[in-house]
Each structure stands twice: as structure tokens, then as C-alpha cells.
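task queued by scheduler; priority normal; single chain, no ligands, no partner chains; default sampling; output format set to C-alpha cells
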Amino acid sequence: MKTFPGLDSLLVTGKRVLVRVDFNVPQDESGAIGDDTRIRAALPTLRKLLELGAGKLVLMSHLGRPQDGPDERYRLAPVGLRLAQLLGREVLCLRETVGDAVERAIGSAPEGAVVLLENVRFEKGETKGDPELSKRFARLGDVFVNDAFGSSHRDHCSVSGVARLLPSAAGLLLEREVEAFERVLESPERPLVAILGGAKVSDKLKVVDNLLERVDRLIVGGGMAYTFLKAKGIAIGASLVQEDQLESVRAALKRAEARGVEVLLPTDHVVADRFAADAPARDVDGGIPQGAMGLDIGPRTRAAFARAIEDAKTVVWNGPMGVFEWEPFAKGTEAVGRAVAACKGYTVVGGGDSVAAAEAFGLTDQISHVSTGGGASLELLEGLDLPGIAALRK
């Protein structure tokens, strides 16, 4: 995967360095930033570029999903304010993304300035990869650095379009992310254990197919586990199931058996009679009775999954084991998270829900690598080449 140039390959001294960052952070209704993790993750690259003598840093990011041009809810000014606090220097926040006014503002900014462009998704051509918009972005810099791993699975103007037009390199965050998944997928210490969860098996089946070529054990929980269980003829009651995926799941289980991959599925469950936070929860062993739906893995499964993780030399976790946002159905995800945190091997957590769970249970500082990119990490686990990375190899 890591066949792309790094910062040491790029001449930045005195240059306008256009940097794609991922500042897509959660905000409340007042615009206050709820979690600045992604802003902090960009700091090492920004500081390194300034240390290397970059003339000016011109930062690009998206925020949210604005639909029809500029939207006051998604302006980047609050992000720029927080960045200035963290970086310890002024950040010039512009209210436009491209155009003559933007070029003049960058041109008149002093040496060493940090300039934050307005939300790139205010430009309708951004998500369509419009070549003309890519050229307008490229006019704002002399060289380009992609440090937005969380957006690198998108073939967007500010991600891959600019990279095709300017001398380009990966930032430190992007390098760390790729190195982590490379260590899991290409050179793992064994045994390698993958843990997959989440609601729909269709979202993860390509990941399953790719991982079956690599892992020693595959742990499956969450809503997707019930399609696996039904494919094996086990009663799942009213649990979530994707009937159209049953044959694909059976084929995957056959491949796992042929390759000697141990697949661990739930053997007991925390169930309720309805999908609600206040629904009475109870434990069920074996099959799930009619009218009940599985919303978490049970105590016996929690123990079995933890044992399967304990002696792993490499672990990758993507997806919760149940509806962890609701306290009665959070024990499975917490148990798996704590087992990953306690594992002495190399551990990687990717996917928004898994990362949120690790944060909620206070486990992130005990995990080797916590990914900043949900969709991007999932596509790497599928074995795909991300457009934002591929473009750096031009």
C-alpha cells in the first residue's frame, strides 16, 4: 500500500503548501465543536511543514454535507478558531474557497501564514471531481499534501484532483494510517484476529471476503451476525437479517472452512421484544425465540470472544457487537473493546462506531492505532486502492 511519496520527498521551503486536512468534526447547534480529535490529528503534519520552512500553509477541508452551496451551519470559522488555539498561532479563515479574492488573500498573507479556505463542499463540483474546480484549487498552491485519510476514499477535487496537478506527497497522519493497515493486511504477526460487527452484513461482506485470505480467526457480532446464524440454520427470532445475503454468507463460511479460518459467532444473546432503549433485556442461550430480537451478544459469547482475542499478535476491529449506545445492550461491545485494549499484540480500531465505542469506554490510549477514517479504513479492509492515495503515485 505504501508506494507513495512522503513529506521528505517534497520541496516545501518558501512554497505555498496546499494541504487537504480532515476537519469534519462534530458540532452542536450553536456551532461549538464537540470533539476536536481530527483537528489534533493534523497538527504534526502542519507543524512539520512549518519547521521545514513552508512559505504559507493553505488548508482545505469539508464539513458536513451541505447540499446547495454555502450553508451557514457548515462554515469552517469555528474550526479555524480551534485550530489557532491548538497550533498556537493565528489562522486566517476565508469565507470563500476559490476565486480571485481567495488568491489575493493568500498572496498578501505574510510568510509562515496559515490560511483556512472555506468548506470545499460549498463548491458543487467538489464531490463530482470537476476537473476545472481541481485546476482552481491547484492555483492556490505550489505543492500539495494529502493528510485527510478520512476522505481519501473519495475521488473529489480537493483530495485526488489536486494531487494529479501538483507535486504531491502524503502527510504524517496519512502515512501512519496506511502503515497501520499495511501491518495488519500485509505483514501481520500471527495469530491475526479480525472482529467485525455493525448492522448489515452487506456493508461488510467484501471485507469478509478479503480478510478470509489473511486472518486466522474471524469474530462476527452485531446485527450482521444474525444473517450468519440464519445461514447456519440457527433460529434468530425477529432479529435483523438480510435474506438476500444468505447464499453469499454460506459461501463465505465454506471458504473459511476450506482455508482453516476459525469463525466465531454468538452462541447466546441479549434480546428484547422491541427495538428501544427502554425495552426489557434478557439473556437467551442458543437460538432466539420467535418475537425476540438480538440486540447484543450474551455473557458466554463475550467470554469466548475475549479468549479468542487474548493471545492474538495482531487484531483489527471494525463494528460494534450490539446497540452499544443503549446501556442494556452495551456490555458486548465493551467486553470486546476491553479485550482488544488488554491484548499485548498490535491492535487497530477502525470505523466510526468502533472508535466511538472505544472512546466511550475510555480505551483509546490502550490501543495501538485508532483510525480517523471510517469509510476509508473499511475500503482498505476490503482490499481497495483509495483514490486519494492512488493519485499521489502519479
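post-processing summary
- The two ends are 14 Å apart (CA to CA).
- The chain is about 35% helix and 15% strand.
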